[in-house]
Amino acid sequence: MNKHQSTENIKSGFPWLIMILMSSVTFVGLLSELMPSGILPQIMADLDINEVQGGNLVGYYAIASAIFAIPLISMTMSFNRKNLLLILLAGFSGSNIIAGMSSDYTVIVILRVIGGICAGVMWPMIAAYGMRLVDEAYHGKAIAVIMAGSTLGISIGMPIVTVIGNDYGWRTEFIALGVFIALIAVIGAFALPSTPGEKLTASSSPFSLLKIPAVWIVLLLTLLGVSAHYGVYVFITSLVDEIQLAGGTEWALILFGVGSLISVLLAVKYTDHYLRLLTVAMFGLLIASMGLLLVFGGMRGVAHFAFFLWGLSFGPLVTLFQAAVSKQVESAKDVATSVQSSTFNLSIMIAASVAGLLLGVYSPMSLTWFAIALALPGLIISFFAKKTLD
Known about the structure:
- InterPro entries: MFS, MFS_dom, MFS_Efflux_Transporters, MFS_trans_sf.
- The chain crosses the membrane at residues 12-31, 58-77, 84-101, 107-130, 142-162, 174-193, 214-236, 251-268, 275-296, 302-321, 342-361, 367-385.
- It is a multi-pass membrane protein.
- With 390 residues, this protein is mainly alpha-helical.
- It has helices at 7-11, 16-34, 40-47, 51-75, 81-101, 105-132, 139-168, 170-191, 206-209, 213-233, 236-243, 248-270, 275-296, 302-314, 317-326, 333-361, 366-384, 386-389.
- The chain has two domains: 7-191, Growth Hormone, Chain: A (Up-down Bundle); 202-389, Growth Hormone, Chain: A (Up-down Bundle), CATH 1.20.1250.
- It contains 18 helices and no strands.
- It is globular, with a radius of gyration of 20 Å.
């Protein structure tokens, strides 16, 4: 696509190829964050570090994303969207390639923080960028397609890069991902439309957005939904071992992934028209899946179905909340989604900490109670939040 092609021409239809290209960005963004998880023992052995230091390779990345999202999105509001995305892709690519070549743990941590900073800007800006390329009636669809990449990253990408890491070494895994991201950047340089930034004003600042009651409702739903899901997901292996699921974690993740993919497709089609219904269904399916695990966790077949239902609930998580917060503002959607994105990342850290404390005292089944306790108020709030979600 010629960089001078007008956005108005693109808006005449739904630009599937461009949206799929943007989806590939969230795909590699997710992999860049979680990739060390699958091959931590390898990394720890090679760098001679302990488990805490190994876990920090993911933790520091997430913390950097949460801390830097709002200030950097505000600072880069005036940047051309295409140029900003290409800079971020260069940061992702370079940080992964250099980390794969480094033998110094401190250097790798710094590179992971750089990757986290890029992610903190990328997640909120790419959704807003995509919305600018389509008519308002397709905003939810654009977010759903773009964010589908993150779901595919969990369900398909992580197993692939983990196999690469196990067969060819963690360094090859890092470098391969970096090269793949560079390839996406090259394609993006030719295919993505050039879109100007916006001027940040007092009325579009993060503090101004937080004066809108509906934004707080969306942030509360984000906190409840993300904490409920990730409190269990982070320790899915412990839960699978507790109920002795036939097929183990591999089958749990496969069924979870299939459910996620199906719900992502549903979100692509229906988010624009049924946002509140989908949000209510997301919380309801989470409660149902956790209830099945709690009551019938040891029963073959039922437990497998529960993981499938959980995946159905999990798939549209990012899409629904980003679409919801975007509906609350007319301009500066990047800032609005950055506030939501920071809440999302903060919720993951809170969920992992609380769930870890619960596991230190109770059995892994306590995590299902934790999820239900958070999802119930989420279900009630989303059901009655007609002005916010409709």
